[in-house]
Amino acid sequence: MYTQAMDTGPQEARQAVRSAEEAALETRFEARIDEGGFIEAKDWMPEHYRKTLLRQISQHAHSEWVGMLPEGNWVTRAPTLKRKCILLAKVQDEAGHALYLYAAAETLGSSREQMIDALHSGRAKYSSIFNYPTLSWADVGVIGWLVDGAAIMNQVPLTRCSYAPYARAMVRVCREESFHQRQGFDSLLAMMQHGSDAQRAMVQDAVDRWWWPSLMMFGPPDGESVHGAQSARWGIKRISNDDLRQKFVDACVPQAQVLGVTLPDAALKWNEARGHHDFGVIDWAEFWRVVGGHGECNRERLAARVKAWEDGAWVRDAALAHARKQAAREQAAKDQAAKEPVA
Ligand SMILES: [Fe+2]
Ligand SMILES: [Fe+2]
Fold first, then answer.
1. Nearest residue to 149 via CA among 83, 217, 84, 100
2. pLDDT score for 234
3. What percent of the chain has pLDDT over 70?
């Protein structure tokens, strides 16, 4: 980042030159953000911007990675072959999302191993929504409809995030998330329109359990959001938590009517003056309890990830051994070609 020459002078002079250079770089960086431009991996960026993004992208990657588990539980119990194929494809998509995002986070200077280690040791967070259990097949549909639906609401603005590798990853992720949301809705609609009374009750029960946790996915209220203002200024977060939550509620109400389910909130009603739906108070104590590691499935989810990582060690070892062998073979072929006389 700095030239060698600058590192040869006395400490104070070096500091002054660095500060002046850094100030100029920072001004250029801020100007680029202000005009709506993108920052690439090799561009200069303030350390705090790098750390903020690294935390956000790795947390997002972990969420996709852990997010395979609740629905993965239902792959073997899907009611039809068609639903099983769809669910397999969706769970596989989530693994792909994690990989795009781990790759984007790696451009900010953290290795995959460091990030996985942070997840497994509990130092890194993932979305708390995945610490709730999936008790019935209807939960799979509701996760698609509400959880993937909330994810889209959160993620579409990230396709315009100022950090270009993250924005590019999000374009691909969002296309797949919208398929996830529709397959969830379609699965619920099939049960509500063609199912038995017991199946309709199962859907309603799943909606009752997932509605409030879905609203919590947008994070704490704007006034309590620690990183909100700075992230907004840097073009990382373009719409606030509360505004996204409101958009989500407004979008879900007519969809719930089409499905024929009741959203479990007595205070939910259209407010003509605001042009939005009013809704009840979120239980933030529950949110913080789950974030703090005391949700129903926190231990189970982390244990499953650690076990998968340990059980898969031989696959990583084999892939590395294969890559080393291949590189050695290619090198030997090159050495041989260099020795052969030119005709
Ligand atoms: Fe995803
Ligand atoms: Fe998804």
1. 217
2. 81
3. 93
- Using CB atoms within 10 A of its CB, is residue 56 exposed (0-12), middle (13-18) or buried (19+)? buried
Query: How much distance in Å is there from the Cα of 278 to the middle of ligand 1?
Result: 28
Sign of CA dihedral 32, 222, 176, 299: positive
Contact 147, 217 (CB under 8 A): yes
Structure tokens at 266: 């007595």
Say what the alpha-carbon torsion angle 238, 244, 246, 252 is, to the nearest 10 degrees: 140
CA–centroid distance, residue 36 to ligand 1 (Å): 26
The answer to whether 217 and 150 are in contact (CB under 8 A) is: yes
Please give the pLDDT value at position 34.
87
- C-alpha angle 192-189-183 in degrees, rounded to nearest 5: 145
Q: In this structure, what token pair is assigned to residue 194?
A: 């063609």
Q: If you measure from the C-alpha of residue 179 to the centroid of ligand 1, how many angstroms do you get, rounded to a whole number?
A: 10
pLDDT at 2 over 60: no
Model confidence pLDDT, tens digit, residues 117-166: 999 999 999 999 999 999 999 999 999 999 999 999 999 999 999 999 99
Distance of CA 63 from the midpoint of ligand 2 (Å)? 10
User: Which ligand places an atom closest to the C-alpha of 181?
Assistant: 2
Q: What is the pTM of this model?
A: 0.87
Cα(67) to centroid of ligand 1, in Å?
8
Q: Residue for token digits 């919208």?
A: 178
Ligand 2 centroid to 62 CA: how many Å? 13
Q: What is the mean pLDDT of the chain?
A: 91
Q: How far is the CA of 34 from the centre of ligand 2 (A)?
A: 32
Kindly give the distance from the C-alpha atom of residue 104 to the centroid of ligand 1, in angstroms, as a whole number. Answer: 15
